[in-house]
Amino acid sequence: MSRHAQLRDHDVNPCLVETDASNKCMDDNNYNKDKCTAYFLKYRNCRRFWHAVMMQRRRNGVKPEMPSAEERKKMLESMGKPY
Question: What does UniProt give as the signal peptide span (predicted)?
Answer without folding.
Answer: none
